[in-house]
């Protein structure tokens, strides 16, 4: 007996198919997201309205995680104390950084919710290309003209080509909705975890905010960050203010960085493909070896989460991830380097504070987890230290201004192999003052 997916002269019955998916145990949230996406396409919304990742959904998912842990209101004393810390941090950085400080915002202290509201659009724009790449890969599998849909979906083996194509179109749209909902859930949860841990608006070390947003600190998270360190609160606030102010200056004066990082994620997303034959072969081998048991859904989920069916990356994807990891490491390395230059001899607890920062980044930091889950990318602590050393050597060779001018364009940023010989790299990207020898 058929499932009744093709009534009305062979047109797909979306609600009947969703009901069947629900009976199969598909998450109700994913089903609702898929239905919403499908209906938006049917209603003729523009491409910009059909984003797979909805900002409103991200905000709601993240807000639940923030609310579960608690979000304290910001008081006048918070504003006054952190404003003073940021003013001092910027005064110190003025002696080291080429980039000028932004105008101090009227609200130096933010709540977790403030950061969420200001950053959520940036997150959506950053990760949307990845969702599109995954959704397109799934859609291509379904839409492949050589692929016949299983009888379980069609209800009968005797279906016309037109009915097959109609069902393929609907399944493709459903899967796009599923993918958008699944990634939005994962991303929203990651943003919520970040909101509960970051100490400043730019603490994630990725340009997500408007370039004129300035520096902001989150007092509740700063207090939790300082617990158990045995270091006075004033030094902790100054240290975290230095990190926040340095990052804000870099992002405000390197506006190309945001699109560059997004383009790398887009390049990775475009390379995503699903090799059905390869996945089928891996599944058969895993079942034969006992690695997965088709009668045990938990075992199947574990196998998926362990990357059993992870497709091979293309050379273009590998290059995109290498550049992304290097860029993120260079941002963190630059921040560590410049604040060390101005604070190492001024703050008695500086070495302990910077080591605590590095340790936190290396051990299950929410930002690391988020990128590992979405892109399979982990920026190693060693790479960040190498990046910090790189900036120190650039300063020795070119001075502080020459170091910061490397942020004028991606062409002036090194790849991993360039870190071993900084002088050779700088020579390769520097135009000689005297060009007569080239004529």
Automatic annotation (TrEMBL):
What InterPro entries does this protein's entry cite? Zinicin_2, Zinicin_2_N
**What Gene3D superfamilies does its record include?**
Zincin-like metallopeptidase, N-terminal domain
- Put simply, this protein is called Zinicin-like metallopeptidase
Q: What is the lineage of its organism?
A: Bacteria, Bacillati, Actinomycetota, Actinomycetes, Candidatus Nanopelagicales
Signal peptide positions on this chain:
none
PANTHER family, from UniProt? HYDROLASE, PTHR39420
